[in-house]
């Protein structure tokens, strides 16, 4: 039997709350830390983290990709269909 | 409750760990060949490793009532060394008739390079030639999506592959393309 929204929330609330606190504390630590040789804003990883946070607030339509799928793709190298020819390998399709 | 551990690397664990997992109910485990933490220098290094997987570890496991099974390959990370990989692939058949060998694995990609893909295809040929099951390692982190799709391209493109005898591990999305899938050690 599938769960209701409230049941899912009940089960996961404390875990998610803890993860959000950790993210908030991490961003605070970054803000408090001194600048290094380069600006943190120039670090692609920092940009991705902020994009990921914004993604959490999105509300995909039922026929669109889920937040989890979009988050996975945000942190993934892109797939190129012609990779076999780039590698000069024979891979049948 | 008895359980089977489907993916665990006992070569890097002490005998205390066998005792602990036995106490927790482990009755059998599956140990794929993997990267040792450094790049091995010769095919003989791999021969010794495979001897450990097919002789020593089953004996260690049996002391605690655990059945030890294993998979053989040169892992994706060391597959970047194509010449060594080919020597290892040529040597693997020496061990395929050992009673605890389940097949070829955990083969896959690491940084999704040409050399890794080349050796993956050659492992596939080995598995097909010797009618072996295949255990797949999908890459970690940023390389997972790209590498998993490349792996599936290579598997799907060969009609000789029996998908019911292929297990794709470390998945984060269980749409399986009719392969067996597993979600151990995801990252």
Description of the molecule:
The complex is a heterodimer of chains A (93) and B (187). In chain A, 57% of the residues lie in helices and 0% in strands. Chain A is mostly helical. The longest helix of chain A has 28 residues, at 5-32. The mean pLDDT of chain B is 94. Chain B starts with a strand and ends in a 6-residue tail after the last strand. With 187 residues, chain B is α/β, with parallel strands linked by helices. In chain B, strand 5 (133-137), helix 5 (144-156) and strand 6 form a beta-alpha-beta unit. A seven-stranded parallel β-sheet of chain B has the order 1-2-3-4-5-6-7. The longest helix of chain B is centred in the N-terminal third of the chain and has 20 residues, at 43-62. Chain B has helices at 15-23, 43-62, 82-91, 114-129, 144-156; strands spanning 3-5, 26-31, 67-72, 101-108, 133-137, 166-169, 180-181. Chain B has five helices and seven strands; from the N terminus they run βαβαβαβαβαββ. Chain A binds chain B through residues 69, 72-73, 75-80, 83-84, 86-89, 91-93, and chain B through 112, 114, 117-118, 121, 141-146, 149-150, 153-154, 156-159, 172-173.
Q: Of all protein chain pairs, which has the greatest interface, and how many residues does each chain bring to it?
A: A-B, 18 and 21 residues
* Percentage of residues in DSSP E strands of chain A: under 5%
| Shape annotation of chain B | globular
Beta-strand residue fraction of chain B: 15-25%
Tell how many strands the DSSP assignment of chain A holds: 0
Instruction: Report Rg of chain B.
Output: 16 Å
Q: What's the assembly state of these chains?
A: heterodimer
Distance between the termini of chain A: 39 Å
Helix share of residues of chain B?
Answer: 25-40%
Instruction: Tell me, briefly, the overall form of chain A.
Output: flat
Order of helices and strands of chain A: HHHH
| Average pLDDT over all residues of chain B | 94
Task: Identify low-pLDDT runs of chain B.
Answer: none
Main sheet specs of chain A: none
Mean pLDDT of chain A: 94
Biggest sheet features of chain B: 7 strands, parallel
Q: Give the termini separation of chain B.
A: 28 Å
| DSSP helical segment count of chain A | 4
Structural class, from secondary structure content of chain A?
mainly alpha
């Amino acid at each position: 039997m599938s769960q209701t929204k409230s049941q899912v929330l009940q089960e996961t609330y404390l875990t998610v709350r803890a993860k959000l606190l950790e993210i908030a504390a991490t961003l605070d630590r970054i803000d408090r830390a001194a600048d290094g040789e380069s600006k943190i804003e120039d670090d692609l990883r920092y940009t991705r983290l902020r994009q990921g946070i914004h993604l959490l607030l999105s509300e995909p339509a039922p026929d669109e990709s889920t937040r989890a799928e979009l988050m996975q793709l945000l942190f993934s190298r892109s797939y190129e269909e012609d990779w076999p020819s780039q590698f000069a390998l024979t891979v049948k399709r | 409750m008895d359980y089977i551990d489907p993916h665990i690397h006992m070569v890097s664990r002490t005998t205390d760990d066998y005792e602990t997992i036995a106490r927790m109910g482990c009755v059998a485990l599956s140990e794929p060949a993997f990267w040792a933490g450094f790049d091995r220098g010769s095919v003989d290094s791999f021969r010794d490793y495979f001897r450990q997987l097919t002789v020593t570890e089953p004996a260690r496991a049996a002391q605690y009532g655990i059945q030890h099974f294993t998979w053989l390959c040169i892992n994706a990370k060391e597959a970047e060394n194509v010449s060594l990989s080919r020597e290892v692939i040529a040597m693997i058949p020496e061990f395929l008739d050992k009673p605890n060998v389940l097949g070829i694995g955990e083969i896959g990609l690491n940084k999704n390079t040409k050399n890794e893909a080349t050796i993956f295809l050659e492992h596939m040929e080995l598995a097909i030639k010797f009618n072996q099951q295949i255990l797949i390692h999908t890459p970690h982190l940023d390389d997972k999506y790209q590498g998993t799709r490349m792996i599936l391209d290579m598997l799907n493109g060969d009609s000789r592959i029996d998908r019911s005898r292929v297990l794709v591990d470390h998945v984060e999305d269980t749409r399986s393309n009719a392969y067996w899938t597993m979600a151990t050690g995801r990252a």
